[in-house]
Write a structure and sequence with these properties.
It contains 6 helices and 13 strands. By secondary structure, it is of the alpha/beta class. The protein has a 6-stranded parallel β-sheet with strand order 3-2-1-4-7-13. Strand 2, helix 3 (59-67) and strand 3 form a beta-alpha-beta unit.
Length: 228
């Protein structure tokens, strides 16, 4: 099963990159177990003599770009991106997403927002009708550390189950690339992700949510049989 999933991820990425990337583009490179395959697909196009600048969504993405010997850029030099490829923890029938399983949702959303096209790449397990159908770990939310306890109390009053994400191979909480904490907040099945995102973002100390609403232009899902 693990090999099927990995091949599904690679198939989705390769098809999406080949469909959308043109010579000379500025390309956003996502974070996570699916988006980590984006540089490999770009290298196939580079072998044809194509050139492009890659904008990372995280430290992981930056290292992948550098190790692949692709041209690294930033929002400072390229504030507008032609197309960004990134994964999702779940994608509903409206192309609304839950992202942030890797803790990079703030930078991912900044890159996606500043992209002319935002292309989601994922395996067959991530497609659902409503958010919360398949992803049961809650919405990742980046918060200011000094506001942690008041935010936890606010979510409790909202009827949600909020957990501070604890690190593996490090004592204490996960710390994002921006120096903040991550909460995983379970609201169950989400009927109106746009309204929920507005409510969460109105809480002082919340820096960003893993709800990506009205942002994705298209989604590519790799199937168990290798189809996309």
């Amino acid at each position: 099963m693990a090999n099927l999933v990995e091949e599904a991820k690679k198939s989705a990425v390769r098809q999406a990159v080949f469909d959308w990337v043109k010579d000379g583009m500025v390309v956003g490179v996502g974070t996570g177990s699916t988006a980590q395959h984006v540089p490999s697909a770009l290298l196939e196009l580079k072998a044809k003599g194509w050139n492009f600048v890659c904008i990372p969504t995280s430290f992981q993405a930056k290292q992948n770009i550098i190790s692949s010997k692709l041209t690294l850029g930033s929002l400072d030099t390229h504030p507008e991106i032609d197309v960004t490829f990134d994964g999702a923890d779940e994608c509903d029938s409206n192309l609304d997403l839950i992202k942030g399983g890797g803790g990079a949702m703030l930078q991912e959303k900044i890159i996606a927002f500043n992209s002319k096209k935002f292309v989601v790449v994922a395996d067959f397990r991530k497609e659902s009708i409503k958010l919360g159908d398949k992803w049961k770990s809650g919405i990742p939310i980046e918060v200011l550390p000094s506001a942690l306890e008041p935010i936890l109390l606010t979510f409790k009053k909202m009827g949600a189950n909020a957990q501070l994400r604890i690190a593996v191979k490090k004592a204490g909480p996960v710390v994002t690339d921006n120096g903040n904490f991550v909460l995983d907040v379970d609201f169950g099945i989400i009927d109106d992700p746009i309204l929920l995102e507005r409510k969460i973002c109105s809480i002082p100390g919340v820096l960003e949510t893993g709800l990506f609403c009205n942002m994705a232009d298209v989604a590519y899902f790799g199937g168990e049989d290798g189809s996309v």
